[in-house]
Amino acid sequence: MITVLFGGSRPDGNTAHLTKMAIAGYDYEWIDLTEYQLNPVRDVRHDNTTIGSYEDDYKTIIDKVLASDTVIIASPIYWYSLSASMKSFIDHWSETLMDPRYKDFKEKMSEKDFRLIIVGGDCPKVKAKPCITQVKYS
């Protein structure tokens, strides 16, 4: 199954059009991250605690991602990076690493076929480099 994580601010913008062209003919689930509530990330690494619950929509989304074979990260390039909604979702992975319900999170995520579709305005080859590096390391 393919899950598209859409981080664009325009549902009919360039990023959406390019992504839909790339997945034409495939079965997929489209998740528009701007339609979900993602609260600020809680960093409990130094508190000697774990994450036990989420008070936003993150768990719903990450469970869909974990059930997928392929995950497409689709985002415009904003200031050399992913959109804020996409970055917020990825930041939440830090919480998942501290959640005992997801003990095998890193292993499961490493098995996913991640694809990146990014769209930039002027000089996209230059402006995309930091974004590509960020996603690669994530």
Plain-language structure description:
There is one protein chain. The protein has a 4-stranded parallel beta sheet with strand order 2-1-3-4, with helices on both faces. The chain starts with a strand and ends with a helix. It is α/β, with parallel strands linked by helices. The chain is globular and about 45 Å long. The protein has helices at 14-22, 58-66, 84-91, 93-97, 105-110, 124-137, and strands at residues 2-6, 28-32, 70-76, 113-119.
Name some characteristics of this structure.
alpha/beta, about 140 residues, four-stranded parallel sheet
Rg, alpha carbons: 15 Å
Q: What is the average of the pLDDT values?
A: 93
How would you describe the shape? globular
Strand order of the largest sheet: 2-1-3-4
**Would you identify the regions where 5 or more consecutive residues have pLDDT less than 50?**
none
Q: Count of DSSP helices?
A: 6
Q: Sketch the topology as an H/E string, one letter per element.
A: EHEHEHHHEH
Q: Summary?
A:
This protein has 138 residues and is of the alpha/beta class.
Topology:
Elements: E1 2-6, H1 14-22, E2 28-32, H2 58-66, E3 70-76, H3 84-91, H4 93-97, H5 105-110, E4 113-119, H6 124-137
Parallel strand pairs: 1-2, 1-3, 3-4
